[in-house]
Design brief:
With 275 residues, the protein is an alpha+beta fold. It has 2 domains: 135 residues, no CATH class; 123 residues, Up-down Bundle (Four Helix Bundle (Hemerythrin (Met), subunit A)). It is built from 8 helices and 11 strands. The strands form 2 sheets. Strands 8-1-2-11-10-9 form a 6-stranded mixed sheet, with no helix packed on it. The longest helix has 32 residues. The N terminus is likely disordered.
Length: 275
């Protein structure tokens, strides 16, 4: 990587997927909410299209795709699909509990909220967005109550009180489960809306203006003195776009540093788009 990486410039630090990345503020012209994107056919998948800034037409590079990460939209779509499946799981769960009572057979699905597919996902998922993190906390109590009701239903059945077991199931379906369904819908709407919060980071390098789509801007700051080093060998990017790493002063978090010339190394594409 060129010596410019060590110059005493602030870094624009941004989020891509679950990692912090940085690009030297030396190259950054502006940071704006994602404007309207016009398609640019016959380009690499990491070229999302064209945007207009102050009368200039600028190519938009999908920073995720350029670094061989899933696009923001692909990640959101996958998460939406997962939540639809987990919602259906709990509808099926309550139906199976009800059928087990009606047919006088053992209920074999899990009563442990940490062992269902949603519970395993919930316990392992780390939200990078504070709004998403706060919203997810709403699931905790109703989800635990839903699974716990099966224990009380079994107790009622063993006591030959089928009427009480049926009442408990109905109350749960119209109470905690109904609320969970509302939460699933709200969560899907929230994460879908995140796509609209993408940031376009406009930079100028080699006499060309290019926009980079990033998930969110974290800060603009100088990194901890002496912290910029080469990535460990087992993590170094094969295409050298992200061969360095630095440390934030306040939090001590690692930031993967992008080398601008490597990131935009496709002169034929950029020349044709800005011509």
């Amino acid at each position: 990587m060129e010596n410019e990486i060590f110059e005493d410039y602030p870094w624009v630090i941004f989020m891509l997927k679950d990692e912090l990345y940085g690009i030297s503020a030396k190259y950054v012209i502006t940071m704006i909410g994602m404007p309207k994107i016009v398609a640019a056919p016959n380009q690499p998948e990491w070229i999302r299209g064209l945007i207009t800034l102050r009368g200039s037409v600028i190519p938009l590079v999908d920073c995720r795709k350029r670094l061989q990460l899933p696009s923001y939209k692909e990640e959101i779509d996958e998460l939406v699909d997962t939540m639809l499946k987990r919602e259906q799981d709990h509808k099926n769960w309550i139906n199976e509990l009800e059928n087990s009572v009606k047919e006088n057979r053992e209920f074999k699905l899990t009563t442990n909220p940490h062992m269902c597919a949603f519970g395993k996902w919930y316990d392992s998922y780390t939200a990078q967005n504070p709004s998403v993190e706060r919203f997810l906390k709403k699931f905790d109590v109703p989800h635990k109550k839903i699974h716990n009701i099966a224990v009380h239903v079994k107790e009622a059945v063993h006591a030959n009180n089928v009427e009480e077991a049926t009442r408990l199931i109905s109350a749960t379906r119209h109470g905690e489960l109904s609320y969970m369904i509302e939460l699933f819908a709200g969560f899907r709407a929230l994460i879908t809306d995140l796509i609209n919060n993408e940031i376009s980071l406009v930079i100028e390098a080699n006499g060309k203006k290019v926009a980079l789509s990033v998930d969110s801007i974290v800060s603009v700051e100088k990194l901890k003195e002496g912290s910029i080093t080469k990535m460990p060998n087992n993590q170094e990017s094969e295409n050298k776009m992200a061969g360095m790493i630095g440390t934030m002063k306040g939090t001590g978090k690692f930031v993967i540093l992008l080398e601008t010339n490597e990131l935009l190394d496709n002169e034929v594409v950029l020349e044709s788009l800005v011509a």
